[in-house]
Specification:
DNA-binding, 2 domains, about 0% strand, homodimer
Amino acid sequence: MPSESCTEPTLTVGKLAERSGLAISALHFYERSGLIHSTRDSGNRRHYSRDVLRRLAFIRASQRVGIPLAAIKTALDALPKRRTPREADWFMLSTDWRTRLDDQIEQLTRLREDLTNCIGCGCLSFARCQLVNPGDAMRGEGAGARRLEPGTPRPEPFEGCPLNS
Amino acid sequence: MPSESCTEPTLTVGKLAERSGLAISALHFYERSGLIHSTRDSGNRRHYSRDVLRRLAFIRASQRVGIPLAAIKTALDALPKRRTPREADWFMLSTDWRTRLDDQIEQLTRLREDLTNCIGCGCLSFARCQLVNPGDAMRGEGAGARRLEPGTPRPEPFEGCPLNS
DNA sequence: ATGGAGCCTCAACATTGGTTGAGGTCAAAT
DNA sequence: ATTTGACCTCAACCAATGTTGAGGCTCCAT
């Protein structure tokens, strides 16, 4: 610890790595990326306050949900800067994230159904398949899957299926 | 089409891009990576047989489930080479994938619970939280998330919880 | 026979999320 | 006093998944 009097105890980068399970290089990287912050002691060593552990937990959790670091940073930037974030602050973030999770679970569930109906049944067609078509939040109107001809009547079930032609 | 007599009609790369919704550059890339194959005509142009559409569908679907191309290639390599894959062939692959999907959905669901219990309750600790601990099958050993060390003793429950210290 | 569309190759670049290594500093322990 | 371990910076690199651009064919229609 830095030799100061009545301060919150801090963690060196090595300790933080140990406690968080992250590599030191990752911590450096997060700091470079503005996801966490440190103070330096007289010897230029980093010191982290304990709430960084919670930030890291949040970062890891978010990554597991597939959120890119840039978005995580944006979320973290919304935390109060002048005081240590409280339970309520984290709660707000996590609520937001849970919404994402809900969406993602729903997507995957639909995907699973489609997989059963679509690949499973042997009719994996670009024309009808959710699996294969950018469901919703995918690429803009432009590049999506095309239907066969503009004005072609909707393919009958199984019409146009590679299996059946 | 290449001026051959009684052959299956083929798709040029442009057509395939149009039908699949993928960029030509991506198709080239997939071919370089061994995920799809083409024949060349007298002018060195690529021609794809129609079942490539299905391969692409499978590739896209798999990617949406988060499977890396290398793994997709491995799966596709298991398809019979001497004949056009049949429904049963695709069925086997899709069954495998559905298992992955099941796992993934379960993970996310657990994650959501944890998010409620763990971040939400204000006790986001490295020691106990599924969210924060590398549950199981995360990214390959390579550049991804690191787990502590093989054999590092787990931190004590509640010890080190930012809230409690 | 000429223009343009469509295609070819190959190399370089982009992005995300980090890791690795070289070369140097600092403080505590022997 | 020296050694050791932890730490510092900076630049280079890695892997996955493509995209972009330069430079050059080839085929079809006019």
